[in-house]
Amino acid sequence: MAKKRPQTKAKRPQRTDGARAARADGDIPVVGAREPCPCGSGRRYKACHGRAAAHAATELVHRPFEGLPGECDWVALRELVPAATVELTLKDGLPEDVPSVTLATVLPMAWPALRRDDGSILIGLQNDTASGDISRDLADTLQRALTADPGTPVQSRRAPADGPRLQDLLDPEGGFQPVVHSGFEFWIPEPEKATPDVTASLERANAAAIPTVKLSGVDAAYWCETPEKNHLRWVMPHPEEQLLDALARLHAAGRSSLGEGTRLVGSFRAHGLTVPVWDLPSEVGAEDVEKPAAEFAERLAAALATDAPLTADERRARGGLTNRQVTLS
What we know:
Helices cover 30% and strands 16% of the residues. It has helices at residues 17-25, 49-58, 71-79, 134-146, 166-169, 196-208, 240-252, 290-304, 312-323; strands spanning 84-87, 101-104, 113-115, 121-124, 152-154, 179-180, 212-214, 221-225, 230-234, 263-270, 273-280, 325-327. Helix 7 crosses helix 8 (290-304) and helix 7 crosses helix 9 (312-323). By secondary structure, the chain is α+β, with helices and mostly antiparallel strands.
């Protein structure tokens, strides 16, 4: 075994009046991780006030889109939908040189944002984020895009821990109406001007995109087509435990399907919300599940309003659903 090195107690430097004031005010400037902390403690910033700043920047926010219009659709576009766009409305309006701000599921080259030549802005939703708060990271990207030079992408960075969130920037009355696309041609308004890298990125993205349709009769339900079977994935706003109980009641009663040959197979957990998933026969299209989905929504509302204890069959059904639950985020 290695010998233990004798430990000596370091003498802490005397703080200056300015350091005392900084600590008292709680306003500690951000410096390099290995630099002395401005508070005057004598420790490196990363081991002193930088630790709290890093924790604040990485602490996971379980429902980052809570309070935004269309929270369920935000989750769907972040995790489930390949190609979609939404026009965003800012609380304070748009600058004169920014004609529009559009949220997109993915941007070419995985850019966090792009300021187009005409000044309009595209914000990518499905990018990796540097902190545990997607809303804060996207708000930081949006703010930087508003002042970026036209024709340039916005690069990723760690958002300031005290920076605004989307909830601070977007108009709560602005609505959220996703438009689902069959491909990513919306990236390139003028294809002849696209660089070879962007064109290649577009071709790869289109090849990987799963055909997806948003149902019109219920909120945040998305049909998708895969080679062997189709699926309906429906992001729901209800508390998880209450929703699982309601789904179990319907499942045990044989009322959880969306028609012949369909089956509720489990659920995803994503950004604090639950996403039930149904398997559909390959011949069942999006239009075929519109009416069954609306009827299921009525059955679910009745089941959610029931607070009686689960029966033995319902508990078994709930256990089966829980065992098939997958956490996406």
